[in-house]
Write a structure and sequence with these properties.
alpha/beta, eight-stranded parallel sheet, two-stranded antiparallel ribbon
Length: about 260
Amino acid sequence: MPTGIIGAQLYTLRDYCKTIEDVAETCRKVADIGYAAVQISGFGPVDPEAVATIMQDCSLTVASTHMGWDRFLKDLEAVVAEHRLWGCAHPAIGGLPGEYHSADGVKRFIDELQPVAERLASEGMDFSYHNHNHELIRYGEKTWLAMLYEQASPDILKAEIDTYWITAGGGDPAAWVRSLGPRQLLLHCKDMAMAPGREQRFAPVGEGNLNWPAILDAAQAVGVEYYLVEQDLSYDLDPFEAMAISYRNLKAMGLS
């Protein structure tokens, strides 16, 4: 049976995480669905210590986070303290500002990342990058994302492949997961469905057209630790129900 922890990317529920009371209620509902872990993202201005208490009360592991790159550059000690408080070993960013999206930008990011990654490593933490589709723009013969993972050592940069956005960029999520091997600790599980008018839509996992058997086989092969469910937009579906559908479908696919 496939193994791995199913987590909820709370950006999906960002409209329900504006206050600490919202966060508490949202985390209770997420735990009731069956999720054992969360990724903190999209929160309003809430107290990190109160968040830690909520996670403990709901028996939720903070698998990862998404924070802006500027926080890592300008407020690293506070970032470290927050992750230590939450017991989170996998901080991440959801992307980079546009000025990094060039061949030269890859080198700039890696140079800036080196001391950040070293400080995180001293605390037993690593650092992951989450992609969208624009990282699959080609610069010469290679995509920006390929250059990033070729040039950055696995010691300083881990991967958080997003299955929807790789597909939207014309890539194969299963192939990307396999190619990144053991640096692929976090996987963003996000499905893509087609709507009338050729509209690509976010969908609960298993309700769209992605090849989940291939994706999960690849994830198992490389040792993904956390399968983080995200749905940027739920459209007419209640986002909590969307998260519940994804959870049930991943369980039905064999994830323990």
